[in-house]
Design a protein that fits this description.
heterodimer, A: alpha/beta, 10 strands, B: 299 residues, mainly alpha, two-stranded antiparallel ribbon, 12 helices
């Protein structure tokens, strides 16, 4: 559905941030992109959705394909029109607008006003909490509600591919579970394809089918979620488990850092 | 308070309110641009002047009907808004806001300098077919142009209120104002909405130019009414359409009151600076204005 082929991203014409990233998101599945802070996950998403340009970044090599259309170099609003939408890290709802106005703005690409109304009802059916808050200014919603609104707003453009950037950021574990559950249902029922960026690797590998690990602007590891869960490096560096699968204790931490195998 | 004093007060209030609403009309153009694009348009007064001059120049042609002058002024101002966004402001996208501010200040100077070259330096009349007979209401009376100004202002405010609350375009425009990057990602063509905001400011300026020009006569000095925009919008809130109306009313009434009560003792001129005193006071206690949006801070 979405294929990223060996892209390079340069900021301000000099700073090389992504050094050859390839990702494949298959239709109707969740693919996760893991990595530490500053690895380039968000930049990858921004390169795909096209908002990179407003930050003076540029895809200089490689190609991004949505279905059979090339979308690298396209303006962000045109990419959305083709059915790919990004949910930003940290919610980023339109704070001055009410909940429902956020959804209306999200449905901007629909030509027909009736489709917007249908979309709003669909979003409310997945997130009933938003319906209760529909006329409230969204800046005053709770973090979880804002995250729901951000996802719902993205759905309003009737996308085929959704890029989800850290939906669990700053939310209580129970809410995270609720939101991830809804995302899974959306993928199944609305035939969405999702590229999920997460810090919470345990959770991400639970709901994803396929995963990629990024470090320093490169993909260093990829595989099915099951393979990644079993990988000893992933266990140690992302899941916090030791070889046997038990939780690691700080008492056993060695004074030197174990070398990551993929760095060899 | 004797009956005569009371009538005097009422007359001052009504006069102030009507002038204030006409200030609000001009402030509206400013607010529209600030709301959508975050740009502070220091050339708002010059927009008004330009629209007034265009309308007066067309009316000056023998046999040209009023409606043609109005339509032409509106059309030219819309075109001017689009062109300005395209030629001057788009290259500044992503630069510091100061760059845009300097550009509008420069634009103001250019417009003030160029218009006498194009239209000549003399003051032109912009007569509207509404007569000069004051409309009296008990002890109060208003010039017909003031009544027209109030009606036009109200119509614009109601129209824009509907546009921003109910129409999808209006909501999209507010989304752009809220967060440009996210709006882009929602499929909103941000640049097109910027251009639309400038064009809308052009329409409002055309209305303002015709009303004000008809009242004061049209020449370069018409641009000075633009200066009153700043106390009005600072009082009401830079990005609030309702605030522009309330701010305009307050400034207009205060001006009228000081002119009526203070001027006789000090020999006049107070109404020219009192709005700015008020503006400074408001900045101290309510920096976002009465209705300005507050940044929502999460802790």
């Amino acid at each position: 559905m979405l294929t990223i082929n060996n892209i390079e991203v340069v900021y301000d014409k000099v700073i090389l941030v992504l050094k050859g990233v390839s990702i494949d998101v298959r239709e109707g599945t969740i693919t996760t992109l893991l990595g530490a802070n500053g690895a380039g996950k968000t930049t990858t998403l921004k390169a795909i959705s096209g908002v990179l340009r407003s930050e003076r970044g540029e895809v200089t090599k490689g190609a991004i394909q949505l279905g059979d259309r090339r979308i690298d170099g396209m303006a962000a609003h045109d990419v959305t029109r083709l059915g790919l939408v990004q949910v930003f890290e940290g919610r980023r709802v339109f704070e001055q607008l009410t909940c429902e106005e956020n959804l209306v703005a999200g449905g901007h690409v629909q030509r027909d006003g009736a489709l917007v109304k249908q979309g709003i009802e669909l979003v409310y059916s997945y997130f009933p909490r938003l319906k209760e808050r529909r006329h409230q200014q969204s800046g005053y919603l709770s973090g979880g509600e804002q995250q729901m609104l951000a996802i719902g707003r993205a759905l309003m453009s009737n996308p085929k591919v959704v890029l989800l950037d850290e939906p669990s950021l700053g939310l209580a574990p129970m809410l995270v579970e609720e939101i991830f559950g809804i995302v899974q249902r959306l993928v199944k029922r609305e035939k969405l394809s999702v590229l999920l960026v997460e810090q919470n690797a345990t959770l991400a590998l639970e709901i994803a089918e396929h995963g990629y690990v990024m470090e320093n602007g490169r993909i260093v590891l990829e595989g099915t979620a099951a393979q990644l869960r079993e990988n000893s490096d992933i266990k140690e560096f992302y899941l916090g488990l030791n070889e046997g699968g038990a939780r690691k204790s700080y008492r056993d931490t060695k004074h030197y850092k174990r070398r990551k195998r993929w760095l060899s | 308070m004797s009956g005569e004093d009371f009538d005097f007060l009422l007359a001052l209030l009504l006069n102030g309110a009507s002038i204030g609403m006409m200030y609000a009309l001009i402030a509206l153009g400013f607010v529209l641009v600030y709301k959508a694009t975050d740009a502070i348009n220091f050339a708002q007064g010059e927009f008004v002047m330009m629209a007034g001059l265009i309308a007066a120049a067309i009316l000056g042609i023998e046999g040209a009907p009023l409606i043609a002058a109005i339509v032409a002024a509106v059309a030219i101002m819309i075109g001017f808004g689009f062109a300005l966004e395209r030629v001057v402001l788009r290259p500044l996208l992503g630069r510091p806001v100061v760059a845009v501010i300097m550009a509008t200040i420069g634009l103001a100077a250019v417009l003030r300098g160029l218009t006498p070259v194009v239209f000549g330096g003399e003051t032109r009349a912009l007569p509207l077919p509404i007569g000069d007979e004051p409309i009296t209401l008990g002890p109060m009376s208003l010039a017909p142009i003031q009544v027209l100004g109030m009606v036009v202002t109200l119509a614009f405010f109601l129209g824009f209120n509907w546009f921003f609350k109910k129409s999808r375009m209006g909501v999209a425009m507010r989304a752009v104002a809220d967060n440009q990057q996210v709006a882009q990602a929602m499929g909103i063509n941000v640049q097109r909405y910027f251009a639309l905001a400038w064009a809308m400011a052009g329409i409002v300026s055309a209305a303002g130019g015709i009303v004000w020009g008809s009242m004061l006569g049209v020449d370069v000095h018409l641009a000075l009414v633009g200066l009153k925009v700043f106390p009005v919008v600072i009082l009401g809130g830079l990005d609030s359409i309702g605030g522009a109306l309330v701010g305009g009313l307050i400034i207009g009434i205060v001006e009228s009151l000081v002119a009526g009560y203070v001027d006789p003792y000090v020999g006049g001129g107070t109404k020219d600076f009192v709005p700015y005193v008020l503006m400074i006071l408001v900045l101290m206690v309510k920096p976002y204005g009465i209705f300005g949006k507050r940044r929502i801070e999460r802790v």
